[in-house]
Structure to design on (190 residues):
């Protein structure tokens, strides 16, 4: 599926029953013929960034907690940063290329010395783990109706209240897709 690319969002449909992804919104960070990788944007954990990666706590966007990025490699951390100026790309920062509106969002190497980043980042969000798909796996899940594939924005990544992210992302879509934002969690109750 040619639309599967970095910067797009996956929004779980009611057909997706995997507890790792129910009602989730995933930002795709990489997608190619070998597979795809992303992070769940709306799963904040109770663990404060200051408790795990204290040196990064002052840049962490509210809520200043680790997010559960997905079920793969949950012992590792992956960070997304937002640039203050799009043309000021520091060492250790790789922009998310593709369809992410607003730009300036990228992967940040947490091993980069903080002094090399001073003044370059306005926000940071840290994820424990990530979501991954093998070759053609994600395309098959989209085709079977497990995911809506929609454009993403930088605001989605650093949103304070993530509880309604799924509904808000669907609500801004054109046509009939916006209707899905009003569906009940259990369609049988409708």
């Amino acid at each position: 599926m040619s639309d599967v690319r970095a910067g797009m969002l996956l929004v779980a449909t009611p057909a997706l029953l995997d507890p790792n992804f129910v009602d989730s919104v995933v930002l795709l960070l990489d997608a190619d013929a070998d597979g795809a990788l992303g992070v769940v944007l709306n799963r904040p954990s109770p663990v404060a960034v200051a408790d795990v990666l204290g040196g990064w706590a002052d840049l962490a966007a509210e809520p200043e907690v680790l997010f559960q990025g997905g079920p793969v490699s949950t012992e590792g951390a992956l960070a997304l940063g937002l640039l203050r100026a799009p043309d000021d790309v520091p060492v250790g920062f790789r922009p998310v290329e593709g369809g992410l509106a607003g730009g300036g969002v990228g992967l940040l190497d947490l091993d980069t010395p903080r002094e090399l980043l001073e003044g370059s980042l306005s926000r940071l969000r840290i994820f424990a783990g990530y979501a991954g798909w093998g070759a053609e796996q994600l395309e098959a899940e989209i085709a079977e109706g497990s995911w809506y594939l929609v454009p993403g924005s930088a605001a989605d990544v650093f949103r304070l209240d993530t509880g309604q992210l799924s509904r808000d992302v669907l609500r801004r879509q054109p046509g009939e897709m916006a209707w899905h934002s009003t569906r009940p969690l259990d369609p049988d109750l409708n």
